[in-house]
Every structure is written in C-alpha cells, then in structure tokens.
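Structural biology now treats backbone shape like a language. To illustrate, our science desk offers a sequence and the tokens encoding its fold:
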Amino acid sequence: QVQLVESGGGLVQPGGSLRLSCAASGDIFSISTMGWYRQAPGKQRDLVAAITTSGIRNYEDSAKGRFTVSRDNAKNTVYLQMNNLKPEDTAVYYCNAGGRSGLWGKGTLVTVSS
C-alpha cells in the first residue's frame, strides 16, 4: 500500500527554522510531483511548495525566500526547509503526491509561537 508519512513538525519561536520530511512508499514517488500544503484552523488547505520529478520548484508567495522544497529520489523523500518562521505559518502541513486528487499524508503540526 502506498503511503506518505510526514515528520518534523513541532513548536518553534518566531524567526526559527524547521525541516519537514515526507517519506513515500511504493512507486508513486518516482512518477509524481510532490507538494507540501498547509491548513490553518478555519481555513482551506493551500499549496505551499511543490517540486516536479525533474526538480522544478513552485512556491506560494509567502513562502518565497523563506522555504525551500527538495527531494531525494534515492530515498523517496521530499523535504520542506522552513526558515524565518512567522506565527501565520502555524498550520497542519500535509505532504501530497500527484496534486489535490492524488495521495495525502496525515499531516504534521507546525506551531510558531513565543
């Protein structure tokens, strides 16, 4: 069974950094654009960053310059390095393979607070 398993969330102070990881089982990783979405309480789930199989990256405007998405194809893992975190980055972050109609992880909570 194909699964996406996120890790790396937690509590961090404003200005701090976190790195999220998403390990994918099965063959889906090698053929999929991988993405990170986030959902804050009472809000919709929005794309934060995505990376294609060839390494082309796409970022939501507030993530540009602060977040970096990368993938290790040998490890079937995608990462989201988040720097200079702000309270408004607080959300559950979800790993995704293949777009909104694709496969989702269960999410990892990121809380940015002093």
User: Anything to note?
Assistant: The helical segments are 28-31. The chain has a mean pLDDT of 94. The CA atoms of residues 32 and 95 lie 12 Å apart. The two ends are 40 Å apart (CA to CA).
